[in-house]
Structures
1.
Amino acid sequence: MRHLRAAAAITLAVSVVAGVTGCGGGTSSDGGSNESPKTLTYWASNQGPSIEADKKILTPELKKFEKETGIKVKLEVVPWADLLNRILAATTSGQGPDVLNIGNTWSASLQSTGALLPWDDENFEAIGGRDRFIDSAVASAGKEGEPPAAVPLYSLSYALYYNKKMFADAGITAPPATWDQLVEDGRKLSKDGKWGLGAEGSNLSNNIHQTFVLGQQHGADFFDEQGKADFTSDGAVAAVKQYVDFMAKDKIIAPGNAEYAQNQSLTDFAKGRTAMVLWQAAATTFAAQGMKPEDWGVAPVPVPAGAPGAGKQTNSMVAGINMAVFRNTRNIDGAKKFVKFMTSDAEQKILCKTYGSIPPVKAAQSDPAFAAPELKVLRDTLATSAAPLPQVPNESQFETAVGTAVKELFADAAAGSPVTTESVKARLEKAQQTMQG
Amino acid sequence: MTATVTTDPGTGKPARGTTRGSGGARRGIPRIPDRIRRGGLPYLLLLPAVLLELLIHLIPMVVGIVMSFRQLTQFFIGNWGAAPWTGLENYEIAVDFDAPIGEALLHSFFVTCVFTFFAVGLAWLFGVTAAIMLQESFRGRGFLRTLFLVPYALPVYAAVITWAFMFQRDNGLVNHVLHDQLGITDQPSFWLIGDNSIYALIVVSVWKGWPFAFLMLMAALQNIPRELYEAAAIEGAGVWQQIRRITMPSLRLVNQVLVLVLFLWTFNDFNTPYVLFGKAAPAGADLISIHIYQSSFVTWNFGTGSAMSVLLLLFLLVVTAVYLFLTSRGRKGSHA
């Protein structure tokens, strides 16, 4: 009886523990086929205010495609928090959708898994040629020198959004063009419970987007030419310190922002609690929060000095969404037709207008809708002063490792602990050491 | 299932008669030795459970163990077969405590031990206290019993996300009470980042875990004969003495299992820290389950992640085995 009970307890223990080790398995076949030419499954990323809104926006377009080609598209809108894990699971099991959206910063990482269809010249021809797309957008779709793993679908860039009334009340006449001006303005604005700048200190990706651009301005790339992590260069340390110092030293970011990760900084901005945010295509969110379009203005993200441009004058990452095809799709021709449809001039105009993004397709940009003040800033930035995040296989590790380091530094700053060049360097060194391969 | 039920009387019949075995042979049923016939039924009934157990738990575990010996990085997840075998390399990385990855794992292990100690201890203490308090019948006892079980019945995600909102620094209920109303802290504290995060984690874990302890112990208390307490009271034993001399020894067997189960659940808990802190838990609350998740899913290195999981599995098995050995020896001693 005693042995039986012990055995039962051990079985229980094993099964409780098993949850940790358990992981599904499987292998994927390579190369697509045309076994099921009448249907496609499509994972769309969440671009609109909600999943439901996305379904409403995309369904009529998919119906159009069905009418044109007779191919029925089964749509699933996947929230951002789940998308990468879902893609990884699909890659591992070989049970994925035919067509899917990916964040463009994941391109090189996903490319290295070999699960996505490479867009060589032949495949690009099938959708109208590579020349239809803007170069910087194609550059953010995979490793340099290899056929891209995806096709640009929506492009975005960062801009500085500011509250016109708060600026006027503080006697500031024009938005800041350099970081020194931003800090100066920020100090004027940070009083009586209101703050100059908003940040998402616990959002790892956002931390990366911001520090990457500052890194470019300090001449740091975070990866060397062989694609090896290089997080502790003087430029990288200075960039991270500059960003955290907005809270630690300049005191223009509220300490509470250190724990923001769910776009609370946009809510603060829309409610008039902070005067500036650095964000990509925020108009729809502001509107959803009840802020009127005439209450906010938009300007290029500041640079150290002079005007935005290439190299050290970079002031945004090339942000955006790419569209990829799973290599083992059972409707390869249909999948390419669908990508062609979604990147056609007409669809690009409709979708980008709705989502407030910039079409990566050159011909679609001529539409007057993309000349509105906000989109003009985003478009100019993309065209002249945006750089893609490092297109290296371990980009996603970089986002986690350095994003976490910045999050911890913000936590230090918020708690009043000093943030020094040494402490920044130590955190980045730790981040670099956890990078494998 | 039906087959087992219908053959059962058939096998039972000839056993009763004098012509053993021939009855079965006459009806054309192949002869099955008695030993197997009598002993086989329980195993047959267990078969579906065993098969499912294999399918759901053991096979994935074996796959996980196999993964831990391969270099299963992002370059190979599309085709596992091509991942190179690395022998013990993943384990060497995980237990090299001088290098950053091993050091971080060790730190996470200590954090988890401290967390588990307090979370299980407090959950047990609350459970046993409430169970004893609710032993006497009084008005509203049923209501309180139900109320206490609510945290256990709530979906984990919904419950923990509510806690995450309450722990927010600027708009959270916790700071509103501690800082704004009671004025205990000089300035609003951070609970979800920095060093306080371990307290937040323990609070949520205890809140979520103690109703289970309460439920188990309440059931166990029902089995203690009231006469024992009456006799003790007549002999002049006070409440504390009754608890110490009657209640606790009677609860011993239940406690042994309860603490083990709570320990395993808490040590392995993934949902609570993941919902509270997201992908990157603060260093002070970096529980091992989240740490392993980050080492495999976020860095896409499933080989190292699996190796860490296997180490965790071994650790928990050893703890469980030692625990069961010690407690069963203690029990034998008490019988003697």
2.
Amino acid sequence: MDAHAHAHAAHAELEIPFNVHPRPDTGLYNAKLGVWLFLASEVMLFGALFSSYILLRTGAATWPRGWEFLNVPLATLNTFILISSSVTVIMAWSYLRLGDLKKGRIYIGLTLLCSLAFLVVKAFEYGHEFAEHRFPSENNFMAIYFTLTGLHGLHILGGMVVFAYLLGPGAKMWQHERERYTNRVEVVGLYWHFVDLVWIFLFPALYLM
Amino acid sequence: MAETITADPLTHEHEQHAGVVDPNVHHGHTPEEIRKEMRVYITVFICLGILTLATVGACYGLKLPSHMAILVALIIASIKAGLVAAFFMHLISERKVIYAVLGLTLTFFGILLWLPVHDWLDKFGKYGAK
């Protein structure tokens, strides 16, 4: 065995199985099963906070209606931004499956822009609340509002870091491991849709009900 | 150990198109099927937009009473969540193991939400019916 063949065999031995192609028994590759297990833990994290919200709301003698003082038009805009970003990330994955890296990267870039826009709008909202002297210590509503939207915002930030990586240095993987790169975009997309799902319930719970 | 799986166990195929081997064989895997899926995504996006406007219009525009706003907002949010989960997260045609993971998760999620509701019903029974 020559040195090159030996190095190739050694590399093959180190390769993690089912990293790209699905396992025969589950039909899933590692990252996809991993992200779904992670999302299961996320459901419980946000579930605990939604449970706290219900407990606080049903236990209170009076509960403010969010639209009386929160900015509903800005929150509606953010809802549109987030659902748009869900579409752009899935379009990115679709174009990568078609073998079109250029369009894939354009849509990843658009997703990144949408997520940035979401945080900028949220920052304006927070700024307005602080200017009106509404802090988490104000009452239970503001406490749960800042906790839920703050945690959701951190998830947006986490997604942005991954999108920036996939758009920049992470895209080099396309040159030699196209499927793996495509899979990475799929799993971050699943995470992103979950972040969108959480907002779909947060928006009416905090602003409209 | 080297990765040795070369075929999908459920479809017994490992299709290749446009230079990309698609591990997601349960989704569309010809360029035409992928483009068809993309049109579905746009349709879902439009539906989500309309439903968002409907929620805001009903709860904020019409200023529905609290109990009605809760009912309307939760029904519309559930439909929107269903669309995102079914089409964007592909739960409409996903592997059994993912359904199993989600089933277990949603059971415990249901218990989490039931706890405060049970507490509220308990209070209502003691103090509310007098």
